[in-house]
Amino acid sequence: MTSRTVYLFCSAAPPVFEVATVIEALQARGWDVCLGLTPTAADWLRESLSGLATLTGHPVRSQYKRPGEPDVWPKADLILVAPVTFNTVNSWALGLTSTFVVGVAAEAIGKRIPIVAMPCVNAAYVQHPQFEQSVATLRSAGVTVLYGEGGFVPNEPGERRADGYPWHLALDIVETLAGPGDRA
Questions:
Q1: Cβ(101)–Cβ(11) under 8 Å?
Q2: Kind of pairing, strands 31-37 and 4-10?
Q3: Whole-angstrom Cα distance, residue 13 to residue 36?
Q4: Spatial separation of the C-alpha atoms in residues 85 and 149, rounded to whole Å
Q5: Alpha-carbon distance 93 to 106, whole Å?
Q6: pLDDT tens track for 69-107
Q7: Which residue stretches of 29-179 are H helix?
Q8: 105 or 156, which is more confident?
Q9: Domain locations in the chain?
Q10: What does pTM read for this prediction?
């Protein structure tokens, strides 16, 4: 049997510190996981990067490869972008691909790779008019954005969610979009 490959892309939001548990949950569901981080998320997890690479069996990436260098990851069957911050959502929707995570996610739209995104933003950020436009742009491009009812619901600035970040919603929709495929 072949394994399915998911690219797990994380921005710098507090749920990124739970990424090892999420990787293990995806692996338990039969996924080969490749971890990509925004530069700030990579900095936050600096002490864990070696262990995360060991856990996934792939280098953790936060930078573009140089032209001509081989790709060190297998091709993605699906991409999960979570937690995805206000900055990353807006950069992605606007096509501003200065970071590896945004660049690969933007290109994946054109390659028709299924993409699930779940924001992690507070209620003050979502008042900015660009955020709703960006969510709508990504949805219109075929990205499954788990935001609002049935997805991530913003909390007040500085407030921690009693029930935590809803990783289970993202993991469940990954399985739904992937279909029955081969399991490792």
A1: yes
A2: parallel
A3: 14
A4: 18
A5: 8
A6: 999 999 999 999 999 999 999 999 999 999 999 999 999
A7: 39-44, 49-56, 86-94, 100-111, 129-140, 167-178
A8: 105
A9: 4-65+76-178
A10: 0.95
The radius of gyration of the chain from alpha carbons, rounded to an integer in Å, stands at 15
Report pLDDT for 183. Answer: 47
Our measurement of the distance from residue 16's CA atom to the centroid of its chain's CA atoms, rounded to an integer in Å, reads 10
Centroid of chain to Cα 183? 21
- Of 67, 60, 153, whose CA–CA distance to 101 is shortest? 60
| Pairwise CA distance, residues 13 & 83, whole Å | 6
- The type of residue at 153 is V
Judge contact between 92 and 106, C-beta under 8 A.
yes
Instruction: Please name the amino acid found at residue 161.
Output: R
- Tokens standing for residue 149: 């009812």
Task: Tell me yes or no: is domain 4-65+76-178 CATH 3.10.620.30.
Answer: no
Structure tokens at 118: 């779940």
Cα 76 from Cα 171, distance rounded (Å): 16
